[in-house]
Amino acid sequence: MKNSLFILTFLCMILSCKAQVIGSLEQFEECSRRPNRDQEGCPDLENITYVKDANNRLDQFVGTWKGNYGGKQYEIKLEKKINYKSDPSDNRSFDRLIGRILVKDNSGNIIYTSMSKTDNKTSFFGDNFQHRGYVMYFVGNYKCLESGNVFIETRLNNPNEMKLFYSQDKDGLITSPSQCPNFETFEPLLPTEVMILTKQ
Predict the structure, then answer these.
(1) Which CA distances in Å does 132 have to 72, 86, 109, 161, 197?
(2) 24, 54, 83, 164: most buried by Cβ count inside 10 Å?
(3) Could you tell me which residue ranges the DUF6705 domain spans (predicted)?
(4) What distances in angstroms separate CA 109 from CA 2, 115, 122, 191, 195, one per listed residue?
(5) d(CA 189, CA 187)
């Protein structure tokens, strides 16, 4: 009886493993650089259901980072999530970074925080590598069109320092003064020039 139970359990494990097709972040990074990607996509990667950080490249970013820029104090907490699906209906999961941000003014007043938000509500999540850097997507005050890519990269000569800059989405975005009354003077939370953060 014990042998039958063991064999049944073993077969169930094999079947569940067989259903998952694993690829790497490097494969998807390479796909993004293909010259005809916009037209052809990456058909060789279509069956992959789990995109794995096979070489643990995300680990260099994990932790709490602090820095100052433009009169603001920044604290950014990055966590690595394994086999993570941001949407249960997705058929593909990723190893990715999830970020939480705390921004204070020069008097120490909190301007923005996502520190207590759940993983799927932080609006700051990783996508993939571009050479040495890692690209994340951030949404702050969406009514003022604050959304875009955040590029992070640790320094070669000092892995406890990280460069960060934000590139705001521009294409196809429309807002009105009623949605964002201070749109003309609105400043994004994250700097659009390089900021240096130090690992705590």
Answers:
(1) 27, 24, 34, 14, 17
(2) 164
(3) 1-145
(4) 63, 15, 20, 18, 20
(5) 6
User: Would you call 45 exposed, middle or buried from its count of C-beta atoms within 10 A (0-12, 13-18, 19+)?
Assistant: middle
What structural domains and CATH numbers belong to the chain?
1-52 (no CATH), 56-88+96-199 (2.40.128.210)
Strand ranges for 39-123 from DSSP E: 50-52, 63-69, 72-84, 93-104, 110-113
Residue 73 pLDDT > 70, yes or no? yes
**Token pair listed for 24:** 């790497």
pLDDT, tens only, 154-191: 999 999 999 999 998 876 556 666 778 777 788 889 99
Question: Structure pTM?
Answer: 0.84
Q: Which two tokens stand for residue 121?
A: 């509500």
- Tokens 């890692």, residue? 134
